[in-house]
Specification:
Blueprint: H1 2-10, H2 13-30, H3 38-69, H4 77-80, H5 85-96
Amino acid sequence: MSKLTTYFSFVRFSHSVFALPFALTGALLAWRDHPFSWMQIAWVIVCMVSARRAAMGFNRLVDARHDALNPPHPMRELPRGAMTTPEAARVAGMSSRRSGS
């Protein structure tokens, strides 16, 4: 259970929720001239959360060495050793994987 908690805290879901209104506003602008379905809304949310998780995951991988030296960040998952670099790469990679391939 602690590994699952580590994976969820690696990229905070609350950050994705904060960005969600921007994604939905963009979709709303696209739907001004075309009808939308609830399935489209669901896919916009899934895609936005995945893209945000991938981007932040890759950022955490690149910045891990700097986070270890930066006073507020050494308790992040990579610098403290709660997650290995290959695990973090898998999380970021799976979030950026195109479905259906």
